[in-house]
Amino acid sequence: MSENVNESRGKTLFQRLFTELLPIEQRALMGTLVFIAIILAVGWVALNEPRRMDIYTAQYEGRSIQRGASIFVTNCSSCHGARGEGIAGVAPALNTPEMFDGTHLAELGWTGTLEDYLLLTVAAGRPARSADWPNPMPTWSQDYGGPMRPDEVEDVVNFILNWGLAYEEGYAEAPAEEAAAPAAPTPEEEEAPAFEPVGTDVTVALPEGDPARGEALFLGTESAPDGAPLGCQACHSLDGSVLVGPSLQGVASRLPEGYESIDLYLHEAIVAPSAYIVPGFEGINMPDNFGERLDAQSLADIIAFLKTQE
Ligand code: HEC
Ligand code: HEC
Asked: In the CATH hierarchy, which top-level class contains the domain 193-310?
């Protein structure tokens, strides 16, 4: 009996502690803790804001450099070399210490920044041929009639500027390979080929093509299945003028000897360009990776568009 009383008394005390006394203290305590936590959090954020912005900027630039790397591989390396080391008789080296230490700009008499020099050169190109460079540097930015959006021009310039960091950090002798190696692809990008490349076999059957989409792909107003512009228009005009490659004006009505059909010829000219070289364009490279960059439908669409150029 007395045990029961004690127990219920004990319970009452216990219950009172937790249902009446502690909640009040807890509430006060919680209030104080939350208040301190807010003060700490605000202080922490304020202290770290500049650092946080740096990290954000670095991440943003990192992504831009990565995109620039893939743009460089697909659009620039056929002339400037895979690591910007240049190709004799085709295009100068870009990945040199002189490009980044001011020597090159001083020689040219350029007083602006290197970034501006690169942006302008890449955007506008150097349409004039010279004795040194029989193939001119194409115009890349849509602002000047080229195939790239301005942000894509910025990405590829950020990629080039990134080579300079290696020299700046005192690795002046760093092998170009290391300096130029694009950042490792993120897992997301490794999975990227969400399309099936058509490949270089010209005997594969193609679906029916849509000339309107083919035109958009050709002009770069629509990106290729791999997400980057194809850049056809940087090298091929449709009005008879010669940029880097032959003008594709009238291409549908000039089937070279030995080809059965214009479809087969155009198919080969795009995915296996070295199989037949247009007379007069010997030694000038058309990129040979379009078989990897196009799926069967996109290739069929471009061929359908080129067949309208009679
Ligand atoms: C068809 C060949 C070709 C392609 C493709 C090409 N370039 Fe060029 N590029 C040249 C030539 C040739 C020159 C030199 C032109 C001159 O000095 O008259 C040049 C010059 C440059 C220069 C100036 C170099 C210097 O020494 O001042 C930069 C920067 C450049 N290219 C970047 C690029 C980028 C970026 C791409 C890809 C988006 C690209 N190029 C694609 C041929 C090419
Ligand atoms: C970096 C410059 C460059 C780019 C980019 C380029 N080409 Fe070419 N293309 C050439 C050159 C140079 C030739 C001539 C040499 C040869 O026959 O391989 C050529 C030849 C051709 C021919 C044969 C033309 C004829 O008169 O018989 C076709 C068709 C063609 N290209 C289509 C394309 C298409 C479509 C694209 C985009 C998917 C493209 N090219 C991208 C440089 C380029």
From this structure: mainly alpha
* CB contact at 8 A, 156 and 125: no
- Ligand 2, pocket-test mutation among 77, 278, 285, 298, most atoms within 8 A of CB: 278
At 293, which amino acid appears? Answer: R
Distance CA 115, CA 100 (A): 10
Which band of pLDDT confidence, cut at 50, 70 and 90, is reported for residue 185? very low
Judging by beta carbons within 10 Å of its beta carbon (0-12, 13-18, 19+), is residue 153 exposed, middle or buried?
Answer: buried
| pLDDT at residue 27 greater than cutoff 70 | no
Answer yes or no: is the C-beta of 118 below 6 A from any ligand 1 atom.
yes
Residue ranges of the chain that CATH labels 1.10.760.10 = 1-190, 193-310
* HSE (side-chain half, CA atoms, 13 Å) at 169: 7
Closest Cα to atom 43 of ligand 1 = 137
The CATH code for residues 1-190 is: 1.10.760.10
Global pTM? 0.57
Give me the residue label for tokens 């501006």: 116
For residue 249, the CA-to-ligand 1 centroid distance in Å is 25
Look up residue 65 and give its two tokens.
């450099």
Pocket test for ligand 1, best of 137, 233, 242, 286 (most atoms within 8 A of CB): 137
